[in-house]
Design brief:
alpha/beta; about 10% strand; Cytosolic phospholipase A2 catalytic domain; about 775 residues; four-stranded mixed sheet; 32 helices; five-stranded parallel sheet; 17 strands
Length: about 775
C-alpha cells in the first residue's frame, strides 16, 4: 500500500537532496563525474584506448596491486575533494549541518550515493576487464581489487582524521550544544510547524526572502551509516555561528590543494624516474581533483564574478601562450634551431627542384638498385622487387606490420626483406616496420643471432600511451620547467619526449640513432630504403624524409609542349634543412613526426621562416602508396629491365572494403554534426579511392608484371582499439589475424611470387601460422 509519508521522508532525505542539488546547481562537478563514469565503463574515448588508463593501469611497467593501490588512492582523493567542494559550495543551503557535531563527517556520510555507485561500477568493470581482456586469474584480479580498495580507504581515513584534528564544530567554537545532542531540541519547522522557538540574539540565519529562497528542505539525515535522524530547527543559532563553522573548511581545503599541487610539481620534476611515474589514469583523476578545488575557491571567494574571472584568466593564459608562457613549441630533436631558419617559400622550392640535383640523386639511387640486384646474382632468372606499404593505426598497426614481415621472412628464409626495395607508410605501421628493419640490420651485421622471436614482437606491442598521458597531466598542462639539450638546442621534456623515450626503452634502445646512421646500410642495399612523409600543417604539402638524396620524389618535370602550372606538392627534408643539420635529426623524432596524431602528440615545429609544423603522414597518405608509386614511376625503366616484376605488399590495420551501413534515424543535433563528421570519418576511404585509381593507371605505364598483395586486420570485427595501448586480448587478436583465411591466401600468394622455381613453402607456411 502506498505510504506517502514514508516516500516524502525518503525523497527529502539528505542523501537524495544532495544528489538533486548536484544535478540542479553543481553541473561543473557533475561533468567530472560524467567523464569518469564514461571512461571506466568504456563509453568514452574507447577508440583511442583512454579507458585502459583506468582499467589497466601500469606502474613501473607492471599492472598489479601497487598500480591499483595508486588508482584507489587517487580515486579516494577525488571523492574527498568532491565532498569538500560540495560542502563549501552547498553548505549554506543546508544550515542544519553546521549545527551538528562533526558536521563535515556527517556531510560526507550523507553524500555517499554518487561515490559509492562510482566505486561499485569501477570495481565491476575492473573485474570484467581483467578477466575478459587481460585473462587474469581469480587471485590476480582479487589482489588488484584489494589494492584499489586499500588505496581508497587509506586516503579517506587520512583526510577525515585531518579534518577531525583541525576542524571545530559549533560546540568547540562557541560552547553551545549541538542540535543532534539535544534530545529536547525542536524538529525543523516543516516537520513541526506549530511549535515556536525563541531565537538567540544576533542575526538569524534566515533573514529575508533571499535567504529563504536558498533553503533546501531536508527531513532526515544519516548521523551514521546505521542511524537516521530527523532534522532539528536551526533558526535559534545566529548566522555568524553557522558561517564560522563553514568558513574554517576553506583553509583546510587550501592546505589539501597545496599538497596536490606540490605533488604534481614533484612528479613533473622527477618524471624520468619510474618511482614517480604513477599510472596516467591516477594523474588524470588528481588533475580533476585540483580543478574542482580551484573552481570551488573561485566560486566561494568571487561569488557571481567567478565565471567572468575564469573566462578572463583563460583569455590571459591563452594570450601569454603566444609568447612561450604556459606553452612551449615542440621541436624535432637533433635539428639545430640556433642557425638561421630555412626559407620556406615557393621560390625556395623552385631552387631546390634543380634538374642537375635531381639527376645526381637519381644516379645515386640507381647505384642502390644495382646493389639490390647483386644480392640475387647467383640465381637463375630475374628477381621480384617488393614494395611495402604500412598503414597507420597506433599500436595495432605497429604489431601488425612487424608480424607480417616477421612471418614472411620466417617462411621465405629472409627473402622477403632481401627482396624489398622501399618501405613507406604512416604512424604506427611504419614504426613497426622500422623496428623490424633495424633488427634485420643487426642480424645481418652479426650483432644479434636471431630476431624472429616472440620477445621482439612483444617489445613493439608494449604500452606507449601511459607515459604520454602522464606527461600531459603532470607537466604539459602546467609549468613545464624541465629541459634537455641536444646539440645547440634546448628542448622541453614534454609528452613528445616521453613518447620517444618510452619507444626506445620498449625496443631495447636499438632505434636510438640519427637519421644519417641508415645512409650506408641503405646505400649498400643491406636493408630496404625507407621514406617518411609527414604532412605540413601550414599548407598540406608532404615533407619527404630519407637518409638518401631523393629530390626526384619532389621533382616536377616541365613539359614545354603542355602548358600546365603544377603545384609543388612534396618538399625534400634534407635539402630544405641542410644548414640546420638535417642528417643529425634523431630517428625516433622522424618516426614521431610521421605518427603525430592530434592532441595525443604535439605538432612538431621546424626551424624555418615562416615556421612550419608537421603532423601524421596519414593525413595525406595513410598507406604510403603515393610514395611507392612515385618511386616506381621514376625508376620504371630500370625495373622493367632488371626485375621479373614488382610486388606491392599493403599491410593495413583495417579492412579496405567495408559493408554499406544502413543510415539510422538521426536527431537534430546528429543532422548538424553528421556532414562534417562523415567528411573526417571517410578521409582514409577517400584516399583508398584515389590510390586505387593511381594503381590502375600504374598498370598502363609499367611494362612489367604488377602484383598487389594485401594483409588486412579486422579491427572493427575484433574490437581492436586505435590506441598506443592494447590489452592482452587485443594483442592476441592481432597476432592471430595472420591465420585468417584471406591473410593465409595472401601469404601463400606472396611466397609463390618470391619463391624460385620448384620451391614448396606450403608446409612451412602452415607451421608458421600455427605459432
Amino acid at each position: 500500500m502506498w505510504n506517502r509519508s514514508a516516500f516524502t521522508r525518503f525523497f527529502y532525505s539528505f542523501p537524495i537532496q544532495l544528489v538533486i542539488v548536484l544535478l540542479k546547481k553543481n553541473q561543473v562537478l557533475l561533468i567530472y563525474w560524467i567523464f569518469l563514469f564514461g571512461w571506466i565503463t568504456n563509453s568514452f574515448s574507447k577508440t583511442f584506448g583512454i579507458p585502459y588508463l583506468f582499467l589497466d593501469p601500469e606502474y613501473m611497467g607492471t599492472v598489479g596491486f601497487t598500480a591499483f593501490f595508486i588508482m584507489g588512492f587517487a580515486t579516494g582523493s577525488f571523492i574527498m575533494v568532491y565532498n569538500i567542494s560540495s560542502y563549501i559550495v552547498n553548505g549554506f543551503r543546508f544550515p542544519f549541518i553546521a549545527t551538528l557535531s562533526r558536521p563535515f563527517l556527517k556531510y560526507t556520510i550523507n553524500n555517499f550515493i554518487i561515490p559509492l555507485v562510482f566505486i561499485l561500477t569501477y570495481l565491476y568493470n575492473i573485474v570484467s576487464f581483467q578477466l575478459n581482456n587481460e585473462f587474469g586469474t581469480a587471485w590476480t584480479v582479487f589482489t588488484q581489487v584489494m589494492g584499489f580498495l586499500a588505496g581508497t580507504i587509506v586516503v579517506i581515513i587520512t583526510t577525515l582524521t585531518y579534518f577531525f584534528r583541525t576542524n571545530k564544530d559549533i560546540v568547540r567554537m562557541f560552547g553551545v550544544q549541538s542540535s543532534d545532542s539535544d534530545p529536547n531540541a525542536p524538529f525543523a519547522k516543516h516537520l513541526n510547524p506549530k511549535r515556536k522557538v525563541k531565537p538567540r540574539k544576533g542575526r538569524r540565519f534566515f533573514s529575508g526572502r533571499k535567504k529563504q529562497a536558498n533553503y533546501w528542505r531536508v527531513d532526515t539525515y544519516l548521523s551514521s551509516f546505521s542511524k537516521v535522524n530527523l532534522v532539528r530547527r536551526t533558526d535559534h543559532y545566529t548566522r555568524d555561528m553557522v558561517d564560522s563553522v563553514f568558513r574554517q573548511n576553506h583553509l583546510n581545503a587550501a592546505v589539501i590543494e597545496i599538497i596536490v599541487f606540490v605533488s604534481f610539481i614533484v612528479m613533473g620534476l622527477f618524471k624520468d624516474y619510474g618511482f614517480f611515474k604513477i599510472p596516467a589514469g591516477a594523474s588524470v583523476i588528481l588533475i580533476f581533483s585540483m580543478l574542482i578545488m580551484l573552481s570551488s575557491a573561485f566560486r566561494f571567494w568571487l561569488k557571481a564574478w567567478a565565471t567572468t574571472a575564469i573566462i578572463a584568466l583563460f583569455i590571459l593564459i591563452n594570450t601569454l601562450s603566444k609568447y612561450g608562457v604556459f606553452y612551449s613549441e615542440n621541436k624535432a630533436y637533433g635539428l639545430d634551431y640556433t642557425q638561421k631558419p630555412a626559407t620556406y617559400s615557393i621560390e625556395r622550392f623552385k631552387s631546390l627542384d634543380d634538374p642537375y640535383l635531381v639527376k645526381a640523386d637519381y644516379d645515386s639511387t640507381i647505384l642502390i638498385l644495382n646493389r639490390w640486384k647483386e644480392k640475387f646474382i647467383n640465381e637463375t632468372g630475374k628477381p621480384k622487387m617488393v614494395f611495402v606499404n604500412c598503414s597507420g593505426g597506433g599500436l595495432r598497426a605497429s604489431i601488425w606490420s612487424f608480424r607480417i614481415m616477421q612471418v614472411a621472412d620466417s617462411i621465405s628464409n629472409n627473402r622477403f626483406t632481401r627482396s624489398t626495395q622501399l618501405i613507406a607508410g604512416a604512424s604506427g605501421g611504419i614504426i613497426g616496420a622500422a623496428y623490424y628493419r633495424e633488427l634485420f640490420l643487426q642480424q645481418r651485421l652479426g650483432l644479434i643471432k636471431s630476431f624472429n622471436s616472440r620477445k621482439s614482437l612483444d617489445n613493439i606491442g608494449k604500452d606507449l600511451l601511459n607515459p604520454v598521458a602522464f606527461s600531459i597531466t603532470v607537466s604539459d598542462l602546467f609549468f613545464n620547467i624541465q629541459r634537455f639539450r641536444d646539440g645547440n638546442t634546448l628542448h622541453v621534456k614534454d609528452r613528445a619526449y616521453a613518447f620517444e623515450k618510452q619507444l626506445n626503452e620498449n625496443t631495447g634502445m636499438v632505434l636510438q640513432k640519427r637519421l644519417s646512421a641508415y645512409r650506408e646500410p641503405e646505400a649498400a642495399a643491406i636493408i630496404p630504403m625507407m621514406v617518411f612523409s609527414p604532412t605540413i600543417v601550414n599548407d598540406g604539402r608532404r615533407l619527404m624524409i630519407s637518409p638518401q638524396p631523393i629530390s626526384y620524389l619532389s621533382h616536377h618535370k616541365v613539359d614545354s609542349g603542355f602548358k600546365f602550372n603544377s603545384t609543388i606538392d612534396e618538399i625534400e627534408f634534407r635539402k630544405l634543412f641542410r644548414d640546420q643539420h638535417a642528417d643529425n635529426i634523431r630517428f625516433t623524432s622522424v618516426l614521431r613526426m610521421n605518427a603525430t596524431f592530434p592532441y595525443i602528440l604535439p605538432a612538431v615545429s621546424l626551424p624555418s621562416s615562416p615556421t612550419i609544423q608537421v603532423m601524421d603522414a596519414g593525413i595525406r597518405d595513410n598507406t604510403g602508396l603515393k610514395t611507392t608509386l612515385k618511386f616506381l614511376h621514376t625508376f620504371r625503366h630500370w625495373i622493367e629491365e632488371n626485375t621479373s616484376g614488382v610486388v606491392f605488399v599493403d599491410i593495413r590495420d583495417s579492412k579496405k572494403s567495408r559493408p554499406v551501413e544502413e543510415k539510422p534515424k538521426m536527431s537534430i543535433l546528429e543532422n548538424i554534426i553528421t556532414p562534417l563528421g562523415n567528411i573526417y570519418g571517410n578521409l582514409l576511404t577517400i584516399q583508398d579511392y584515389n590510390q586505387d585509381e593511381a594503381y590502375e593507371y600504374a598498370k598502363s605505364w609499367l611494362n612489367a608484371p604488377f602484383d598487389f598483395i594485401i594483409f588486412e586486420l579486422p579491427t572493427k570485427e575484433q574490437d581492436i582499439s586505435l590506441s598506443w595501448h592494447l590489452t592482452t586480448r587485443e594483442k592476441q587478436s592481432v597476432y592471430n589475424s595472420i591465420d585468417l583465411n584471406e591473410n593465409r591466401k595472401s601469404m601463400s600468394r606472396l611466397m609463390e611470387l618470391l619463391s624460385q622455381k620448384g620451391a614448396d613453402h606450403s608446409k612451412l607456411l602452415a607451421s608458421e601460422m600455427e605459432q
